[in-house]
Write a structure and sequence with these properties.
Length: about 80
């Protein structure tokens, strides 16, 4: 039978593995959220892509593609 320490160790290893990915997540802080809100309201798609690249999210990644898709939907409603 497993003791409590082994279970905790195993669980923490699983959690750590889940956090490692191909891309690092964008830091969720007020500056990032504020910048993205401004780009969504007043910016262009090019500005958004450049900002995402500056934040470490390469163009063409699944996450950046999804964000650009959301921007396009929002931009269509904005016009």
């Amino acid at each position: 039978m497993f003791d409590e320490e082994e279970v905790k160790k195993s669980f923490s290893q699983e959690v750590r593995r889940d956090k490692r990915g191909k891309y690092k997540p964008l830091p969720r802080n007020r500056q990032t959220e504020s910048a993205i809100k401004k780009i969504f309201e007043f910016g262009t798609e090019l500005e958004l892509v450049r900002y995402l690249e500056e934040q470490g999210l390469p163009d063409g990644s699944e996450q950046s593609v999804e964000i650009v898709k959301l921007f396009r939907e929002h931009d269509a409603k904005r016009r």
